[in-house]
Amino acid sequence: xxxxxxxxxxxxxxxxxxxxxxxxxxxxxxxxxxxxxxxxxxxxxxxxxxxxxxxxxxxxxxxxxxxxxxxxxxxxxxxxxxxxxxxxxxxxxxxxxxxxxxxxxxxxxxxxxxxxxxxxxxxxxxxxxxxxxxxxxxxxxxxxxxxxxxxxxxxxxxxxxxxxxxxxxxxxxxxxxxxxxxxxxxxxxxxxxxxxxxxxxxxxxxxxxxxxxxxxxxxxxxxxxxxxxxxxxxxxxxxxxxxxxxxxxxxxxxxxxxxxxxxxxxxxxxxxxxxxxxxxxxxxxxxxxxxxxxxxxxxxxxxxxxxxxxxxxxxxxxxxxxxxxxxxxxxxxxxxxxxxxxxxxxxxxxxxxxxxxxxxxxxxxxxxxxxxxxxxxxxxxxxxxxxxxxxxxxxxxxxxxxxxxxxxxxxxxxxxxxxxxxxxxxxxxxxxxxxxxxxxxxxxxxxxxxxxxxxxxxxxxxxxxxxxxxxxxxxxxxxxxxxxxxxxxxxxxxxxxxxxxxxxxxxxxxxxxxxxxxxxxxxxxxxxxxxxxxxxxxxxxxxxxxxxxxxxxxxxxxxxxxxxxxxxxxxxxxxxxxxxxxxxxxxxxxxxxxxxxxxxxxxxxxxxxxxxxxxxxxxxxxxxxxxxxxxxxxxxxxxxxxxxxxxxxxxxxxxxxxxxxxxxxxxxxxxxxxxxxxxxxxxxxxxxxxxxxxxxxxxxxxxxxxxxxxxxxxxxxx
RNA sequence: GGACUCAUAGCUCAGCUGGUUAGAGCGUUCGAUUCACAUUCGAGAGGUCACAGGUUCGAAUCCUGUUGGGUCCACCA
Length: 718
Fold this sequence. Notes:
It comes from Candidatus Wolfebacteria bacterium GW2011_GWC2_39_22. By secondary structure, the chain is of the alpha/beta class. About 40% of the residues lie in helices and about 20% in strands.
C-alpha cells in the first residue's frame, strides 16, 4: 500500500499535481479522448465567460462546479465532452470597476484620452484574466483551455461588428432618436435591463397651468413642456382639445397645445398631464404620436441648460427647489402631496436615470417593421423556440418568465458611450441624420448630403457580443467546431441573467445560425452567506471560495455548494458545512486505506464465491449506480451528491466494511477472497461515481487501486 | 398593479411524476474508543410538514383560498 495513506487526506498536497496531470493528458480537449465503443457523440457546454475584472466569487465557484460535474459525467458516459472556457471584457461592468479604481487614485476618466483609458483598462483586464483563469483551474474545471476565447480577441470583434452590419442590412438594426436611459454619473446610456426600479418618496406638485392644474413630480422640467394632454373622454377638459393655451412660469410665458390621448389616466392627479417630450419616456411617445417638438432643457450632466433661463447651470434637485419656490410666490402652486413611486436607477451606482433624447443604435425586437425570417420578429422567433420545446428550462418556471419578457420586450439600445468595448463600426454625418455601418472604413463623405462624416465613438453593449458567445466560441459560420458542437447541449447560468443574456443568445442563435444555441437552460440561484443573507462588500459577509479551498480542499467546497442546492433556488454557504465534506473526503481516504491494507497482493481476476449477503450488497450497489445515473441524467445533481455521500459513509463504511472485518481476518481463504472482492468492487465503483463531484481525491485514489497504475479516472467508463 | 417563488426538527435545507413509523447535515443529550479513520463510532431527544377548505382508499406532495417571507417585471405624470 502506498504510504500516502498513512496520514489524513490533505487536499493541498494533491490538487495542483492532479490538475497538471489532467491538463497534460490532453483529455480536456474532446478531440484527444480515447476511442470508445460506446461513443455517444459530442456534448457541449459553453462556460458563461467570467468578467475579467476581478477574482472569482462564490457564484463562480458554484457554476464551475455544476458545469464541471455535468461535463465530467458526460465524458465518463462516453460523450465527446467539450466545455469551452472564456473571459468577458464585460464593457460597462469593467469600466465601472476601473472608474472606482481611478477615483481612489484621485483621477477621472473624463480627463483622460480615450485611447489611454482603453489601454489602461486592457492592462488591468488582462492581469485579472490570469487570476480568474488560475482560480477556475483551482476549482478543478475540466474545460478545454486550448479553445479559450476572450470577447476582445480580434477575430471575435470583427465577427461581432459583422453581425451589426448584417442586421442593419436586414432592417433589424436602426439608428433612432428617442429618450434613452441616461446615467448622469457614468455618462452613458443603458438598456432597459440595466436599470433597476427603486421605490422613492417624492412630492407631487399641483401646478396651475392656464385653465388646468397639472400634477407633476418634476416641476423643473416645465421649460421643456410643449403640450398638456388630457383624456378625450374626460368631460372636464375635452372642450380644450385642439386649442392652444398660454401658461405662466417664472421665466415668462409658454405656448402649449392641448392634446387628447387615451393613455392619460382620468383618475390620476387632476387628469391633466404636462408633456415634456425630451425628458420623459411617455411624453416622448406622446410627442411622436401627436407630432410635437422636443425642447431639451437638461444636459448630459443633469444640469439645466440655457433654455431654462435663470435656472441654467443648476442641478436638477436644486432647480426643482427654486422653481417650486418661485411658482409658490407667483401663486401657481395649488398643493403639494407626498408621493411614493418607483424610479429607474443605474444598476451599478443607483443614480436616478435621466431620460435623455439621444440618437442611438437599436436592435428591432418586436414585430413592427423589419423581420428576421419568415415574417417573424426576433422576439417572436425566440419565444417560439421556447414555446415549442426546442429549449427547455430547469427549473421549468423560467419558461414562463422568459416568454413573458419576450412578448413584452422593447427595442434594444446597443450604443454605449464608453471606451471599454467593441467599437461600433459606423459612420455618422455631422450635417444630417445619415448613419450607417462601415466595416471597411470606406465612407468618407455623407452619401445623403455630402457633408463631413465621423466615426461613431460609441461601443457595443457588452451583451451584444456575449449574446453571440455560443456562435463565436465555436467559430461560426465555417469552423469545424461549429459543425460538430452546435447547437450546444446545456447553458448553465445564474437566474439573474434570464433577461440580460439568455434571450440575446437565443435570438442571435436563431437569427444567424437558424438553430437554437442550446437545448437546456439550467439556472442556479444565488450563493448567500451562512445565514442566507446576500453577500455584499458593504455588509462584510463575503466568503471567498479560494479561502475555503485553502482550508478544506476543492472537493469539499464543491460538495458544500451542491448538496441541498436545488436548481433555481438560492443556497447558504456555511463554513461548517464545507468542513463536514472535508471530513467526508477523509472518510473516503480512510476507507480506501482499509481496503488497500487488506488487498495486498491479491489477484482480483479470479471469480469469487459470493455469499448471499455479498450478492445482496452488490445488488444494492447496482441500485445506487442506477439511481445516480438517472439523477445525473436529469440534472438532479444535489440528489446524486447527497445519496452517494450517504451510501459511501453510512452504508459502505459503517455497515459493509464493519461486517466484513471478521472475514478478512479469518482463515477461510475462499471466504476471505470474497470479502476482499466485494469491498474492492464497491470502492472502485463508488470512486467512479464520486468523481464528477469530487474529482481530485477520487483521481488520486483511483491510480492507487489494484491494477490501475497510470490510468486516468477522468476518462474511465462510468 | 402583475408574475414567479418559498413556508418541513433549534439552524441550513432535501423529499422526482401522491402510497407503510417524514429525511440529511450542523447543533444538542448519553455513551464508546489501543483493532482504516477523534477529520471517529454507537444510541437518543427533537416536526399536528404556515393556516383553512377540497380532490382521493390514501396528501408534506395535487387544487382553491388566507397569512407571512423573497425575487422579478410594470410609463399612471
